[in-house]
Amino acid sequence: MQFKRILCPVDFSDFSASAYEYALTLAEHYKADLVALHAIELSKYPYADYVGATGNFVDLSRAVCEGGEVKLREFAKRHSRHEVDPQLVVKEGHASDLILSFAQSHDIEGIVMGTHGRRGFDRLVLGSSTDRVIRRACCPVLVVSDPAHNLMTTGPDGKHRLSRILYCTDFSTNSERAMQYAISSAEEYGAELTVLHVTGSTEDLARAEARIAGRREELDKLISENRHLTVRTAVRCGKAYEEIVRYAQEVQAHLVVMTARGGDAVDRAIFGSTTYRVIQLGPCPVLAVHT
Q1: Fewest C-beta atoms under 10 Å: which of 104, 175, 189, 250?
Q2: Residues 89 and 196 placed together within one structural domain of the fold
Q3: Distance (Å, rounded) from C-alpha 23 to C-alpha 28?
């Protein structure tokens, strides 16, 4: 895993500020280019319809974009790191569309963004740019859902460190790509890697433990040249998202790596897949790897 270009959408909320801090950390670690993108959605301005009716929509667009550029410069200055000189971009349009198209056209290798964590019908009615980006992004998306929880440690050099990474698998072919990112992250940071599988019933526990043992052997082969890595395994019984959240809390995971997929669009919007629920309820950021 190499992040050469990282994109961080910024809406000036506490959630995006926390995500931006993580983006700075990744940019420092990987010596990557960082792009801070602010999307101007004129439809959200209460006076946009009135201005459009009077024929001054172009002037409104220019004024709002100029104001966004000023706010973005101030935001970047407030959260500056001397090793990172971010590219600041302000564009007008729907946030998720802009994020996805920018990532595609500029060879972005990782997106870091915050989410307000709306659930159920609120998310169905109001929408979520983060959800749409996770489902359609051409690269992994690191999602930060709670600005108050930052469990990353700081090393002697003053830089953030990932010490405990939790990789969740259901043993499907879709989860293999996420496993590669989990292993690579653990190698990069010298972190402890835990492989967790949740089975739905106690009757399947023995079979699940056997599968975990097999996955451990696969991991051992993959990291044979990096024996300094510490790999643990765990099996839990119950609802997948509840057990993942509980286990992440118990071990104080710094990062959860999961596959981004789920049911149909309406089902995801109303009920959420396992990945989305872990993002909403978990104690740490989630790296969602799209398949």
Answers
A1: 250
A2: no
A3: 9
Condensed to tens digits (0 to 9), the pLDDT of residues 249-274 reads 999 999 999 988 644 454 444 445 78
What CATH number is given to the structural domain containing 220? Answer: 3.40.50.620
Instruction: List the structure tokens of 286.
Output: 């989630």
Looking at the fold, whether 138 and 185 belong to one and the same domain comes out as no
Strands (E) across 54-191 are located at 87-92, 110-114, 141-144, 153-154, 160-161, 164-168
Q: Are residues 82 and 174 in the same domain?
A: no
Shared-domain flag, residues 122 and 207: no
Residue that terminates a domain, selected from 102, 127, 144: 144
Helix (H, G, I), strand (E, B) or coil at 140: coil
Q: Are residues 96 and 26 in the same domain?
A: yes
Structure tokens at 34: 């960082």
| DSSP structural state of residue 238 | S
Q: Which of 100, 118, 144 is the last residue of a domain?
A: 144
Q: Say how far apart CA 246 and CA 283 lie, in whole Å.
A: 9
Question: What pairing do the DSSP bridges indicate for beta strands 33-40 and 5-9?
Answer: parallel
Per the structure, the count of domains in the chain is 2
Range of the domain at 113: 5-144
Q: What is the pTM of this model?
A: 0.83
Strand runs (DSSP E) across the chain, as ranges? Answer: 5-9, 33-40, 87-92, 110-114, 141-144, 153-154, 160-161, 164-168, 192-199, 230-237, 255-260, 286-290
Q: Which residues of 172-188 are buried (b: 16+ CB within 10 A; e: fewer)?
A: eeebeebbebbbebbbe
Q: What is the pLDDT of residues 18-41, one digit of tens each?
A: 899 989 988 988 899 999 999 988
